[in-house]
Design brief:
The chain has two domains: 48 residues; 82 residues, At1g16640 B3 domain, CATH 2.40.330. By secondary structure, it is an alpha+beta fold. The strands form three sheets. The chain has a four-stranded antiparallel sheet, covered by helices on one side. Strands 3-8-9 form a three-stranded antiparallel sheet, with helices on one face. The two termini are 26 Å apart. Helix content is 24%, strand content 30%. The chain is elongated, with a radius of gyration of 16 Å.
Length: 153
């Protein structure tokens, strides 16, 4: 279960007070609070409320497959030249990145940094994109692994 799934279940059960929610959460406090105030939730007068869904939501637009998040991506010239890669907030949720926090992902070509911004996750340069054109599928594993598959859907 992801932090966003857990918070949604708490809200559905009528347990919306922030402080008790933080104390009960099976996740680090910083992660729970970050998810509770961004994405599909907001904090209002000490209670966690749902917000209308947005395209850059904590919840993946495509379902998790075997616990891994798959994200299709069109490779741009900037990405091939070593520019950063913007991916959905759902990646931050899956990897449990604290707000404005940073984690290192492991790839076949070496480490890649991932930073949770206000409305997206920014990956550092992904070496595997240097020689690719068209679309790819980025596969994120909650253990911090990133796999790049050619010909994303």
């Amino acid at each position: 279960m992801t932090p966003a799934d857990w918070i949604a279940a708490e809200i559905d059960a009528g347990r919306t007070q922030l402080q008790p929610m933080l104390e009960r959460a099976p996740f680090p406090t910083a992660v729970t609070r970050t998810v509770a105030e961004t994405g599909d939730f907001r904090i209002d007068a000490g209670h966690v409320r749902r917000t209308p869904p947005k395209p850059a939501s904590w919840f993946p637009e495509t379902p998790l497959i075997d616990g891994r998040l798959h994200h299709s991506l069109a490779v741009t010239d900037d990405m091939r030249a070593g520019g950063g890669v913007v991916v959905p907030m759902a990646v931050g949720n899956l990897l449990q990145i604290p707000r404005m926090g940073f984690v290192t992902l492991h790839t076949a070509d070496g480490p890649v940094g991932a930073r949770l911004m206000e409305d997206h996750v920014l990956l550092g340069p992904v070496k595997a994109l240097a020689d690719l054109c068209g679309s790819v599928e980025l596969v994120f594993d909650p253990a911090g692994e990133l796999e790049v598959l050619e010909g994303g859907h």
